[in-house]
Structure formats: C-alpha cells, structure tokens
Design goal:
InterPro entries: Di-copper_centre_dom_sf (IPR008922), Tyrosinase/Hemocyanin (IPR050316), Tyrosinase_Cu-bd (IPR002227). One of its GO terms (molecular function) is metal ion binding. The chain is mostly helical. It is built from 13 helices and six strands. A two-stranded parallel ribbon has the order 1-6. Strands 2-3 form a two-stranded antiparallel sheet. Strand 4 and strand 5 form a beta hairpin. The protein is globular, with a radius of gyration of 22 Å. Bound molecules: copper (II) ion. Copper (II) ion (CU) binds next to loops.
Length: 358
C-alpha cells in the first residue's frame, strides 16, 4: 500500500513536471536555451588567426592537394575541369545565376562550404574550416594576417595577372573568368577603399534585421559584397571568384553572419526562408545595372554555353514549380556530393551539418 502511494506520488510529480515543461515550451520556446546539438563529431570553425600554426599548415596542405588532384567527374571534365578544385569552382560557375541575388544565396553558400569540407577531407583534412573576422581588418585588409605572404593565403597580387605569392603561387585554376575557361594563377587585388564596409557597424546592421527577407539582402549587399569588391579575387569575377581559396574564409564570415542572425531567435529562424530561387532576366545580379544579358556584356562574363546549360540544375526543384525558395528547395553540387535541401542546412548543428563558429 505504501509502495502504491509512493508510486502514485511519483506519477503525479512526473505529470506536473511534464505539464510544466509543456507550458514552458509553448509560452517561452523562443527564450529557452538552445538544447544540446543533435549532431555528433562537431567541428570547430576557428577564426584563422586563432588557429594553431600546425592546424593552419594542415589546412593549407590539404587545400593545395585539392588544387592539384585530378578531376573525377566526367561531365565536369568534359566542360574543362582539370582538378578537383576546378570542379568546385565550376559548380559555382554553372549555378551562378541561381545562387546570387536570391533567397538561395545563404543556404547554397553554406552547402558550398560543406562541399569544400568534403574535398579537403579527401585530402586528409579533418579539422574545421577557417573563417575570417573581417571587421578586425576592415580598412586594413592589406595588413591582415590572412594575407600574410608566408603564414597566410599569400599577399596582394602583383604583376599583370595580379598573381598572389605564398602557398598558392604557381598553381593553376582552369575555370573562369565568367562563363569562359582559361588557365590562370590564383589572383586578387586588395582595395582598402572598400574594405571599411565590412566593419562591425555593417555586420550589426545586418544582424538587426527582423526577418530573413531583409537579413539576406543586408548580408548580401553589405559585408558580403564589399568584401568581394575589396579583395577582387580571381579577376574580381562574381561567377568564378571561388578559384581563390581566400573566398572560403570570406564566405565563412558570411555564413557566420547568417548563423549569428539565426541564433538571435531560435528555433523560429531555423525555418525562416524565402526570396527568389533564381535571378530574373530583367534584374540579373541586383548589385549591377541592367538584366542578365546586359551584365553578360558589361561584366565581360559572357553567357553559359549550351553544354553548361545542359547540366544546370532546375532552380525550381523542390519549390512546387514556383519561383520562391522553400525549405524543400533542392541544392545540387553536380555530383561532387549528394544533393541536399535547404532544410538540411538551416541548422549548422542539425545533423546534416555539425559545426560551430568559435
Ligand atoms: Cu557565390
């Protein structure tokens, strides 16, 4: 009898505990502490200058390995990819008109960094991707530790091709500029007139936006765009700038901005997604005048070849045939890794992805 009473009391306590938890989750979900990540084997994405020198060296070594490993995918080789790195750059080139100036911009580039991580793992690198805290160097990119000619990614470009020295000197990228494919050195041209626009004021402005529609636009047109303009990676070309490994530290910064924005209101912002899933012919890139056809000429990009168009994924896939990006939107890496949905990458610790920015 006593035992029964004890059990009953325990049951009541449990029930009241459950009901309290339910009430909390309904009324206070937004303010609840983030539960421990569901994913296993979390990697840390450290700011470059905080990484151990041995980790920096391991990253650069794997990066050079990807850039010198032969291409594997017949469809991409047929279009001019010679190295594994070329395949990654070609992915960005082929899909360029559906991943910029669009709602897919942030989820695609999060996925794109995941593809880079996969290629680095093929070359033995198991650590986290480095990111660049650009506000620390805003106005003074030229002296950033990331641009150290010896211990960074090589310095400012020099000579007619703006080729960078350092660890990537002498390597060739075969994809770009624009929709053409010509072998070039890793090149960049630092411009500290524009780099102040990556400072904390602009980051904070983007992070203060109330919804995804305004946040992606502020990130895209703010620190993201001005970082690109200040670095002019790979001929300053919007279509094929990932040829410079520095691109991925800049986009780590961009991805972290999105995550920091999401983390201000969890879990609501794990499902806030919208914006066009491809550029429209009349508008093209929102940062340039004119539509797609005008930009092809004015920016010197040319247009995708018929062979490129033949392997370009349908940007409406997963979006019910509509032009708006949904959580079911399918992102393709042209076969480097399996496709993923936008939903897969909304949470950087949701299981498909498993990393943290430190
Ligand atoms: Cu891009």
């Amino acid at each position: 009898m006593v035992r029964l009473l004890q059990l009953a009391a325990l049951g009541l306590a449990l029930l009241s505990g459950v009901s309290t938890a339910v009430a909390l989750s309904q009324t206070d979900a937004r303010n609840m502490k983030r539960k421990p990540p569901a994913c296993k084997g979390m990697t840390k994405r450290e700011e470059w200058r905080n990484m151990k020198r041995s980790d920096q060296k391991a990253y650069i070594k794997a990066q050079r390995c990807v850039m010198t490993s032969p291409a594997k995918l017949p469809k991409l080789k047929a279009l001019g990819a010679k190295t594994r790195w070329d395949e990654l750059v070609m992915l960005h080139q082929v899909e360029a008109l559906q991943i910029h100036s669009t709602g897919t911009f942030l989820p695609f580039h999060r996925y794109f960094l995941h593809v880079q991580q996969f290629l680095l793992a093929e070359c033995g690198y198991k650590g986290g991707l480095p990111w660049w805290n650009e506000p620390l160097d805003a106005g003074n990119f030229i002296n950033s530790p990331l641009l150290d000619p010896v211990t960074g990614f090589g310095g400012d470009g020099t000579g007619p091709g703006n080729c960078t020295g350092g660890p990537f000197a002498g390597l060739t990228v075969n994809i770009g500029p624009g929709f053409t494919n010509k072998p070039r050195c890793v090149n960049r041209h630092i411009n500290d007139f524009f780099s102040p626009l990556t400072n904390q004021t602009y980051v904070d402005d983007a992070l203060s936006k109330p919804d995804y529609a305004s946040a992606w636009l502020a990130i895209y047109m703010g620190p993201h765009l001005f970082g690109h303009i200040a670095l002019a990676m790979m001929d300053g070309n919007s279509i094929t700038s990932p040829g410079d490994p520095l691109f991925f530290t800049h986009h780590g910064f961009v991805d972290k901005m999105w995550w920091d924005w999401q983390a201000r209101n969890l879990p609501a912002r794990l499902s806030d997604m919208n914006g066009p899933n491809a550029q429209t012919p009349e508008i093209g890139f929102i940062e340039f005048d004119g539509g797609i056809a005008d930009e092809a000429v004015a920016q010197g990009w040319g247009s995708p070849s018929a062979a490129m168009l033949a392997i370009t994924p349908d940007p409406k896939k997963g979006d019910n045939g509509g032009t708006e990006t949904t959580l079911n939107h399918v992102m393709s890496s042209l076969g480097i890794i399996p496709d993923a949905t936008v939903r897969d990458v909304m949470d950087i610790q949701g299981g498909y992805l498993c990393y943290q920015y430190v």
